Amino acid sequence: MTDTPAPTLDTSEDDVVEQKAVRMAKRERLIAERGDAAGGAYPVTVPVTDTIPALRERFGDLEAGAETDVTAAVAGRVVFSRNTGKLCFAALQSGDGSRIQAMVSLASVGDESLQRWKELVDLGDHVYVRGQVISSRRGELSIMVDDWAIASKALLPLPNLYSELSEESRVRSRYLDLIVRDQARQTVRARAKVNASLRQTFTAHDFIEVETPMLQIQHGGAAARPFVTHSNAFDAELYLRIAPELYLKRAAVGGIDRVFEINRNFRNEGADSTHSPEFAMLEAYQAYSDYNGIADLTQELVQNAAVAVAGSTTVTWADGTEYDLGGQWDRISMYGSLSAAAGVDITPQSSLADLEALAAANGVDEPSHPTHGKWVEELWEHFVKPGLSRPTFVMDFPVDTSPLVRDHRSIAGVVEKWDLYVRGFELATGYSELVDPVIQRERFVAQAKLAAAGDDEAMRIDEEFLRAMEHGMPPMGGMGMGIDRLLMAITGLGIRETILFPLVK
Question: Per UniProt, where does Mg(2+) 2 bind (predicted)?
Answer without folding.
Answer: 426
